[in-house]
Structure prediction request, 86 residues.
Amino acid sequence: MASEVIATDRQYPKLSKAASGYIEIDHFKNADLHTGYFCYNCIYFIKDNHCAIVEDGGPDVNGRESGIIAPYGLCTLWDPNEKEAR
Prediction:
């Protein structure tokens, strides 16, 4: 869980979606998010649509703006959340 990894005693700057390599792939909207490298399975993911280290807004690597961190999204900073992954 993100709160176990990142100290909460101060605010840290978040990375932009583009800088983190974030992308949303609509094909995976209905996929089993407990398997694979999805944001849903990442220790930094904050349910329902946020991330502890990546900004919600701004364009992803394809220039697409959704205003959220999608559970079916993925980025280069992914770190497995053993409690969610199968």
The CA atoms of residues 29 and 72 lie 6 Å apart.
